[in-house]
Amino acid sequence: xxxxxxxxxxxxxxxxxxxxxxxxxxxxxxxxxxxxxxxxxxxxxxxxxxxxxxxxxxxxxxxxxxxxxxxxxxxxxxxxxxxxxxxxxxxxxxxxxxxxxxxxxxxxxxxxxxxxxxxxxxxxxxxxxxxxxxxxxxxxxxxxxxxxxxxxxxxxxxxxxxxxxxxxxxxxxxxxxxxxxxxxxxxxxxxxxxxxxxxxxxxxxxxxxxxxxxxxxxxxxxxxxxxxxxxxxxxxxxxxxxxxxxxxxxxxxxxxxxxxxxxxxxxxxxxxxxxxxxxxxxxxxxxxxxxxxxxxxxxxxxxxxxxxxxxxx
Length: 313
Prior knowledge:
Elements: H1 10-39, E1 44-49, E2 54-57, H2 61-65, H3 69-72, H4 86-97, E3 102-109, E4 115-124, E5 130-137, H5 139-153, H6 163-180, E6 185-191, H7 194-201, H8 203-220, E7 226-231, E8 234-239, H9 244-261, E9 267-273, H10 280-296, E10 302-304
Parallel strand pairs: 9-10
Antiparallel strand pairs: 1-2, 1-5, 3-4, 4-5, 6-8, 6-9, 7-8
């Protein structure tokens, strides 16, 4: 039986072959062009397989993160991302499976052994086989934002929470105490005769005194208690799952520590709890009234709010 002839003649075959070679040349040229773009981009560009391993890494990985391309190929992004942020990678993978683009910020390992903050914008290809990512080094910007946030919510003198932060944390802890039906106690801690210290020894001595009080509060409190400087020489201590009596014992420990560090300095304390107050305003007013009573009686003591004490602001 004679062999079946192709459906095209020699001229047609030459045209098909020429077209095939032209397409191949275009593909090679396109790949080279993409490499040129990726390698000279300001950001790291990667392509990952569905299993998370790198298929392509732009050459600028050496300049940006200290890694040579061959060091990263066949490794996964999870191996470079700090474990604290693996949850973000999982969340992005879930979104990629739905065809949605993602943007995530996390810490990525630099070749020097330190982690740097990066922003990763990525999206899966239409067939879901690959994920294309553009990774930007945002370490300097992230550090600046963290510093600004820290300054916005911490007291510059003592390093403790400031009034803004304490107010937000108090609202959160109060909601939690209502939800869990447990007692939250708050304590105002005030330095006795602080103005005399400032007037007699100067503001530098007053500042050092406040720092010492802050250190004693931190040393005495439990890990889940929250301490901050409310303003001036007044500190606020939030004690979750604690009744007024337990809060009084906790603040006595602060007074003992300060007495050992600075015997000439005494503290007055006013305490309230959700056993007698249901709102943030009531808690603070009652604790302030108890503090005022401690001061009225001569200071250097702990007072718990009780019926009959004025709650007037």
